[in-house]
Design goal:
This protein is an alpha/beta fold and 410 residues long. It folds into 3 domains: 228 residues, HUPs (Rossmann fold); 72 residues, no CATH class; 69 residues, Structural Genomics Hypothetical 15.5 Kd Protein In mrcA-pckA Intergenic Region, Chain A. It contains 17 helices and 13 strands. It is globular and about 80 Å long. The termini are far apart. 35% of the residues are buried. The N terminus is likely disordered. Pfam families: S4, tRNA-synt_1b. It comes from Acidovorax carolinensis. Homodimer.
Length: 410
């Protein structure tokens, strides 16, 4: 927390705590002094601040890396402020060029509608649906029409637009920039005007668009919003940002056992980063837990608590407890109560082909690599021979710690 701002602008304990919550895990909060004033005014008047998060439904589902910004919304929601979950059904028709080195293809209205329904259902696992305002930016964007769009475009210059990194880099590299892409930041900024937002949240790649909202609110005679950017969450490897393409992610629709086990697989160092960005525990509680670990408590205890909290959020407390027991059972070499049943033919069948056909390995070559690493078991015994052939019968086949199948081979 910037102590000079607090010193120069005496505030109540409530505002101080709200600022601390606002700053938890953030990349930037701009301008911080304006946010302090907004918090103080809200406390004095009892009027909640309007906090906006816009998401374009570009894919049907999300992973827990996407929930970092939703968690921040929930923290601010719990302070009593009005959060607005804005679905960009209009801006999705344009396509967000943020961070792109090429034109993003727009979605069809049918894709947008289907994805938006999934997004809201998944976001409701983090936000309190009863206290969340759901809006679609087509409400005010479509009525603008051609005249309104021209008037809006007149409020920002091409020179300012070209200051944006992705536009600048593409122009310099000779890559095409379609005129409609300039409309995206304008329309996102206009959302802030339509909603009279006090604060807009986004990832670090959205900073230009968030600042556009401040600019346009001033153009339309409104008090400008503050902006808050959240960092990108590192994935299971602790190095790259969480991404499905890098296979270092936890999907929020994954089953409870898999989700729990994946959280337990992260490093002790990454665990504290995840606590800050994903846990609903207070910073004081997290610091107390850190102190206990520093004093000799097993860090696995803290990781188990985090795994159960995240699993319970997207499933239930009972499912988290069951996932813990399942993990303990597996770690002792036990077989889960429920595993996939697979029927195969072709006995005698090579172990590599069996793993591939049972969907326990993506390819025969990967199956061989797993065998070389000692990661394959048949009926509890480690397989070391890549040339092993299994006769007709039923086998419990295990790959790694979490993949099982009961294979009946004929």
């Amino acid at each position: 927390m910037n102590q000079s701002l607090v010193t120069n602008n005496p505030v109540s304990d409530g505002v101080r705590q709200a600022l601390e919550t606002s700053l938890r895990g953030v990349e930037e909060l701009l301008p911080q002094d304006e946010w302090i004033k907004k918090l103080a005014r809200s406390e004095a008047t009892g009027q909640p601040l309007r906090i906006k998060l816009g998401l374009d439904p570009t894919a049907p589902d999300i992973h827990i890396g996407h929930t970092v910004v939703l968690n921040k919304m929930r923290q601010l929601q719990d302070l009593g402020h009005q959060v607005i979950f804005l679905i960009g059904d209009f801006t999705s028709l344009i396509g967000d060029p943020s961070g792109r080195n090429s034109t993003r293809p727009p979605l069809t209205p049918e894709q947008i509608k289907l994805n938006a329904e999934t997004y809201y259902r998944q976001a409701s696992l983090v936000l309190d649906p009863a206290r969340t305002e759901i809006r679609y930016n087509s409400e005010w964007s479509e009525p603008l029409g051609a005249t309104g769009m021209i008037q809006l475009a007149s409020r920002f210059t091409v020179a300012r637009m070209m200051e944006r990194n992705d536009f600048h880099d593409r122009f310099k590299a000779g890559n095409p920039i379609a005129v409609h892409e300039f409309l995206y930041p304008l329309m996102q900024g206009y959302d802030s005007v339509a909603l009279k937002s006090d604060l807009e949240l986004g990832g670090t790649d959205q900073k230009f668009n968030l600042l556009m909202g401040r600019h346009l609110q001033q153009e339309y005679g409104q008090e400008p919003q503050c902006i808050l950017t959240m960092p990108l969450l590192e994935g299971l490897d602790g190095i790259e940002k969480m991404s499905k393409s890098k296979n270092n992610y936890i999907g929020i629709s994954e089953d409870a056992n898999t989700m729990y086990a994946k959280v337990l697989s992260i490093s002790d160092t990454l665990m504290w980063r995840w606590y800050t960005l994903l846990s609903f525990q207070s910073l004081a509680q997290i610091e107390a837990l850190k102190a206990e670990v520093a004093g000799g408590r097993n860090p696995k205890d803290a990781k188990v608590a985090l795994a159960k909290e995240i699993t319970a959020r997207f499933h239930s407390a009972a499912a988290a407890d069951a996932a813990e027991q399942d993990f303990i059972h597996r770690s002792k070499g036990g077989v889960p109560d429920e595993i996939p049943e697979v029927a195969l033919s072709g006995a005698p069948l090579g172990i590599g082909a069996l793993l591939k056909q049972a969907n326990l390995a993506p390819s025969t070559s990967e199956a061989n690599r797993l065998i070389e690493g000692g990661g394959v078991r048949v009926d509890g015994g480690v397989v070391s021979d890549k040339g092993l052939k299994l006769d007709a019968g039923t086998y419990v086949v295990q790959v790694g710690k979490r993949k099982f199948a009961r294979v009946t081979l004929a």
